[in-house]
Amino acid sequence: MSEITIRRAKEADLPAIVAMLADDALGRGREDTSEPIARAYRDAFAAVDADPNQFLAVMTEDSRVIGTLQITYLAGLSLQGALRGQIEAVRIADDRRGSRLGRRLLEWAVEECHRRGCRLVQLTTNKSRLDAHRFDERLGFKASHIGYKLELLISSGR
């Protein structure tokens, strides 16, 4: 029987993580899976890995990366100064979907937030991901807020 573990991501995991991020209609248009892995991904990984309020996780089966998500811990004044856990970029490898691994990964993330002292866990997902919305609601998440994003143009230096 294969052993499934969840751990902090390593730079060597980046190709597998980026491949999962690119493995849908949204991701195909915004991610770059060419090898070698783009410097922007390596730079972003280094920044995330160095930040104590970030946790990029991978789920592995034996030595293969089969899932990923990122937790960001947010301090704030609302809710009487409550710490929040923000979960994003939840992905399971295509050939492993439907095997309850997504549930296991999200439950692990919620427990990590609880262990860290978070009073609230927030989860973001694109409005077009209707299957993900149903999945998240089955896990107890509620669509209680509306979020907005503003894409900023950046210089070619990054």
End-to-end separation in angstroms reads 43 Å
Helix content: 25-40%
Query: What would the CATH topology be?
Result: Aminopeptidase
Unreliable stretches covering 5 or more consecutive residues: none
Radius of gyration computed on alpha carbons: 16 Å
**Broad shape:** globular
Overall tally of domains: 1
Mean pLDDT reading: 91
* Strands, count: 5
Proportion of residues in extended strands: 15-25%
Largest sheet: 5 strands, mixed
- What is the name of the CATH superfamily? Gcn5-related N-acetyltransferase (GNAT)
Decide which structural class fits the backbone: alpha+beta
Q: What CATH architecture do you see?
A: 3-Layer(aba) Sandwich
Output the helix-strand order.
EHHHEEHEHEH
Strand order, biggest sheet?
A: 1-2-3-4-5
Describe the protein in words.
The chain has a five-stranded mixed sheet, sandwiched between helices. 34% of the residues lie in helices and 23% in strands. It has a single domain (4-138), classed as Gcn5-related N-acetyltransferase (GNAT) (Aminopeptidase), CATH 3.40.630.30. By secondary structure, it is an alpha+beta fold. It is built from six helices and five strands. Keywords: Acyltransferase, Transferase.
Considering the chains and any ligands shown, give keywords for the structure.
158 residues; alpha+beta; Aminopeptidase; 5-stranded mixed sheet
How is the secondary structure organized here?
Blueprint: E1 4-8, H1 14-21, H2 25-28, H3 39-50, E2 54-61, E3 64-74, H4 78-81, E4 84-92, H5 101-116, E5 120-123, H6 130-138
Parallel strand pairs: 4-5
Antiparallel strand pairs: 1-2, 2-3, 3-4
Organism: Mesorhizobium waimense
GO molecular function, one term: acyltransferase activity, transferring groups other than amino-acyl groups
Pfam family, one: Acetyltransf_1
